[in-house]
């Protein structure tokens, strides 16, 4: 037998999936719902947000959310949650899936069950993406030939002296440096605002797929979330988000903003920045800074992957911080893989995953983000 064939990650993953296939069920199978709940209680513990009824209700609103779980004949021993969506890859519209909350029971670890649960998705969808990845899962994904897209960008625009949260164990030098960076950033923002365009933002009571499609039909050059907006609309309509629109000679843009509290400061997170062209970025950011000041916001934050937007954010005084979540993807189609393997091609934020739940509900009720062990 050719050794190169036996070591092929895709072949090994398929054989592993075949070995466990009879154990795997979908979450819409109501036969094991009580056992699935018990498994999650034992896996995460009551203090983590994955066990909160609000989390289950929140994920349950998504029309594309599901869970694949493993049943050994007596109990649930593993799970992989997922939510499907569409990516625009060039002119193609490709169905993809976001993988999250992979967990394997201790007694089944190192037996291939985690590989089987993940491979179930990579065999079912052309593209699988994952954000917020533990060290253990990262090692497994690398063995399975996933693309390492680095970390999502995390940028902060401090709007006052308290806007940059302290780090644990931070000394005097760091505190002084943080304050100096805040002052310089704010001065630069004021200079840009004094010379920039005066554009207002119109508040939108709701955001429809038609509005997003109209803007996105002019956008090009990125692998980006397609305007199958219903897979995100449930989140924006029913939780703590606000939508704002800018229009002018520069074009049109729509911002989706989420409010959150961090160490007693008020933050606005830029969850989405839809625009029909990049010339709309600067006037929209200027309007956003004015609006944030009117609402007493301490800082603006962007957490995602969008190189062109990030370049503009830096010009407006946003500061890169080392808090970005890991970002990986799997693509079995060679042509698609060529386009997907460069981080510069991607345009997405954490609304693609469940990473923002802790900000919406978990921190509010004192439930920390779980450090999930993956199998």
SS-based structural class? alpha+beta
CATH class of the largest domain: Alpha Beta
How would you state the average pLDDT, rounded? 80
Q: Return Rg in Å.
A: 22 Å
Key traits:
375 residues; Aminopeptidase; Acyl_CoA_acyltransferase; ligase; alpha+beta; NAD+ synthase activity; disordered C terminus; 16-stranded mixed beta sheet; 13 helices; 29% strand; 2 domains; 16 strands
How would you sum up this structure, described in words?
The protein is 36% helix and 29% strand. With 375 residues, it is an alpha+beta fold. The chain has two domains: 3-151, Gcn5-related N-acetyltransferase (GNAT) (Aminopeptidase); 153-324, Gcn5-related N-acetyltransferase (GNAT) (Aminopeptidase). Helix 2 packs across helix 5 (113-124). The two termini are 29 Å apart. The relative contact order is 0.17.
What is the compact description of this entry?
This protein is of the alpha+beta class and 375 residues long. It is 36% helix and 29% strand.
How would the blueprint of this fold be written?
Elements: H1 3-6, H2 9-20, E1 24-26, H3 33-44, H4 53-60, E2 65-71, E3 76-89, E4 92-104, H5 113-124, E5 127-131, H6 135-143, E6 147-151, E7 153-158, H7 172-195, E8 202-204, H8 209-216, E9 223-225, H9 230-238, E10 241-248, E11 251-262, E12 265-275, H10 281-294, E13 299-306, H11 307-315, E14 319-320, E15 326-331, H12 334-340, E16 346-349, H13 357-362
Parallel strand pairs: 4-5, 9-16, 12-13
Antiparallel strand pairs: 1-2, 2-3, 3-4, 3-9, 5-15, 6-15, 7-13, 7-14, 8-10, 10-11, 11-12, 13-16
Helix pairs in contact: 2-5
């Amino acid at each position: 037998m050719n050794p190169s064939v036996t070591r092929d990650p895709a072949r090994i993953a398929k054989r592993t999936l075949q070995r466990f296939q009879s154990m795997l069920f979908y979450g819409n199978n109501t036969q094991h719902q009580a056992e699935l709940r018990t498994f999650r209680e034992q896996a995460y513990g009551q203090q983590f947000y994955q066990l909160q009824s609000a989390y289950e209700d929140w994920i349950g609103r998504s029309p594309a959310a599901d869970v694949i779980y493993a049943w050994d004949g007596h109990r649930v021993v593993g799970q992989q949650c997922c939510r499907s969506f569409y990516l625009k890859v060039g002119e193609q519209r490709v169905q993809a899936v976001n993988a999250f909350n992979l967990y394997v029971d201790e007694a089944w670890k190192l037996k291939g069950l985690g590989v089987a649960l993940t491979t179930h998705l990579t065999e079912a969808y052309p593209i699988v993406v994952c954000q917020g990845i533990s060290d253990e899962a990262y090692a497994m994904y690398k063995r399975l030939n996933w693309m390492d897209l680095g970390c999502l960008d995390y940028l902060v625009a401090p709007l006052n002296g308290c806007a940059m949260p302290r780090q644990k164990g931070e000394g005097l030098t760091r505190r002084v440096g943080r304050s100096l960076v805040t002052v310089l950033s704010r001065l630069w923002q004021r200079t840009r605002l004094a010379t920039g365009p005066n554009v207002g933002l119109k508040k939108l009571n709701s955001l429809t797929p038609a509005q997003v499609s109209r803007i996105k039909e002019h956008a090009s050059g990125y692998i980006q979330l397609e305007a199958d907006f219903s897979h995100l609309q449930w989140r924006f309509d029913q939780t703590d988000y606000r939508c704002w629109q800018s229009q002018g000679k520069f074009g049109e843009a729509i911002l989706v903003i989420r409010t959150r509290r961090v160490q007693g400061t008020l933050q606005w997170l830029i969850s989405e920045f839809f625009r029909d062209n990049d010339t709309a970025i600067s006037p929209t950011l200027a309007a956003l800074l004015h609006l944030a000041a009117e609402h007493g916001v301490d800082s603006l934050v962007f957490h995602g992957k969008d190189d062109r937007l990030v370049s503009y954010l830096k010009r407006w005084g946003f500061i890169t911080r080392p808090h970005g979540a890991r970002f990986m993807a799997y693509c079995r189609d060679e042509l698609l893989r060529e386009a997907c393997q460069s981080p510069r091609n991607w345009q997405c934020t954490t609304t693609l995953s469940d990473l923002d739940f802790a900000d919406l509900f978990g921190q509010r009720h004192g439930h920390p983000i779980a450090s999930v062990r993956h199998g």
